Amino acid sequence: MKTVVHKSDSRGYANHGWLESRHTFSFAGYFNPERVHFGALRVLNDDKVAGGQGFGTHPHNNMEIVSIPLLGDLEHKDSTGRNEVIKQGDVQIMSAGTGLQHSEYNHNEDKEVHFLQIWVLPKERNIEPRYEQKSYAAEDRMNKFQTVVSPNDNNAVWINQDAHFSLANLDAGTSLDYQVKNDGNGVYVFVLNGELEAAGEVLDSRDAVAVTETDMINLKAKSYAEVLVIEVPMLELN
Q1: Residue 170 domain-assigned?
Q2: What is the pLDDT of residues 71-114, one digit of tens each?
Q3: Any idea what the CATH number is for the domain that residue 38 is in?
Q4: Whole-angstrom Cα distance, residue 195 to residue 192?
Q5: Which structural domain, as residue segments, surrounds residue 93?
């Protein structure tokens, strides 16, 4: 087993007034040659957007884009005609494929929206663009994994990649084993809140550990903890 720890305060940071963003991997004005990607995981942005503000219409292609609201409501519009609002508890995926345009705005004028935007390199290029979102109950991930993104789980939103996203909320002292679903995949463990030991590494809120060359990872909560586990193929960028 190999591990690389990414501490919360080592992430890139940008403050545009209306947008405060922390970048796990190189993005926009932040570039770190050691943090370009983890396998097929290309972007993990931790964004806070002020009331009524957001990202204007912009293009994407050949990328799987997952949005997970942590607080507040995010409004999404795209060139397929979609106009949706995603809330805390929802998971949204957009397969950009051959190309589309979209915008994302804070749906509320009076409070902040806080969400994760995650980009995964696709398995198949130039597919027809698609969109999907589902809602997930927090009680269904208490002390167990809840798969929310997968290519082969009907309860999850579908992704054009051999990638799997799982959420878990763990009571203090709870130990849980994550079984790697695809041989050779790597696993990125991102702590949303609390203190957690993962693959032998002690992590605090917004810390992460990248784990490779194993088929199982143990998680143990030091306090009540919420965690996102992202499993991806260990692709190289072209």
Answers
A1: yes
A2: 999 998 888 788 889 999 999 999 999 998 888 888 999 899 99
A3: 2.60.120.10
A4: 9
A5: 12-135
